[in-house]
Amino acid sequence: MNPLQVLYVDDEADIREIAALALELDPGISVRLAESGAAALEAIGAAAWRPDVVLLDVMMPVMDGPAVLDALRQRPGCASIPIVFITARTQSQDRQRLLQLGAIGVIGKPFDPMSLAKELRAVLAAEAVVE
Amino acid sequence: MSDVSEAIARLSARFLARAADDLRDLQLWAVEPKRHADELRRLTHRLAGGAGTFGFHHLSTVAGRAEDAILCGAPDLPTWLTEVANELERLAREYGAT
Q: What is the CATH number assigned to the segment(s) B3-94?
């Protein structure tokens, strides 16, 4: 079975490093990293690679998470890529706003490195049930 | 120790090593919080997200409250910035990062 391809996008290098290690505690997950919205769009545009899910920080300089989501939704072949936002702003109205933008889930920051992969799997499972 | 545990320990140390610099920046910007709202928001956002991941939960909480206060223009912003500064100072002192 092919591993779940996850693109993790965050402008904080230390958080990217922890997230990659945390996600790959799940042997069924393979992680690529991007340090900005532009880098994420470039990675997704690379030939022969399409993530199964994008884990996307909300607040990033220049191009924030919602702007990346918007750009993906307008790109042919990428509109259906599931987006999960990761954010320190987890009040219900913030979560609701992000879900209304088209994300399938929101994971709170700070995250527990030991359970990040499980949280992501839970979001994906809930989405599959809804579908 | 797992790769994740090793990384958390290493990155926590790096986070603490920055605490004294973060404290200096915060104290500088807090003098004129409206003028430095963008810098303060970036700093408190980074602390809110990063501190908790590395185990510094109280700093994460108060930084999140400060970020909320910046975004809302809340009158209690100075209180939360003081809380963040106090916690950064405590961590820097406790872990010898100054």
A: 1.20.120
